[in-house]
Design a protein that fits this description.
This protein has 158 residues and is of the alpha+beta class. Helix content is 53%, strand content 11%. Helix 1 packs across helix 4 and helix 4 (103-119) packs across helix 6.
Length: 158
């Protein structure tokens, strides 16, 4: 409490409003920048929805996403051409297996959603370039891909 005789003037926090607006603007720009990838993700998720699938909105301050799951997602992810996987992110769409989706895996995929928001339509190309760079250095294309390393680091904060 401030006495009338004190020289201290309490000013309500106005800095949070412009900061919130800036964060919202950056979030919207990221969604728009990744929209072509998200459209591809939605096209891939459409059959999942048509075959007894479900969709949930994942509310994340830094990367909201639509989470699709169902029997067809389970089937396709188990038989993915690059090997079985629990989930995959395409733009702001995450397609996940129902039985193996954990908070850690979702955090990993949301890291890829943030990467897509940052890189936009360029993300598939830079992701493949990072895998090629790892291979050129004699390393594993997946485990030593800088985008995968960053997503695994994000998992640590779960």
């Amino acid at each position: 409490m401030v006495d009338a005789g004190d020289d201290l003037i309490v000013i309500p926090s106005v800095q949070s409003t412009p900061l919130r607006l800036l964060r919202s603007l950056v979030l919207v720009l990221g969604i728009v920048w990744a929209l072509p990838l998200t459209a591809v993700g939605l096209l891939l998720a459409l059959p999942v929805m048509m075959w007894r699938g479900q969709v949930n909105l994942v509310r994340s301050q830094r990367a909201p996403a639509l989470l699709f799951s169902g029997p067809l997602a389970d089937y396709l992810l188990e038989r993915h051409p690059f090997g079985a996987m629990c989930a995959m992110a395409i733009g702001h769409v995450v397609i996940a297996e129902r039985s193996s989706l954990t908070r850690r895996i979702l955090t990993h995929e949301l890291a890829h959603v943030r990467q897509a928001a940052c890189w936009g339509i360029l993300f598939p190309a830079v992701y493949l370039a990072a895998s090629a760079w790892a291979l050129l250095r004699g390393q594993d294309a997946y485990w030593n891909n800088v985008f995968e390393i960053a997503a695994r680091k994000a998992e640590r904060y779960v």
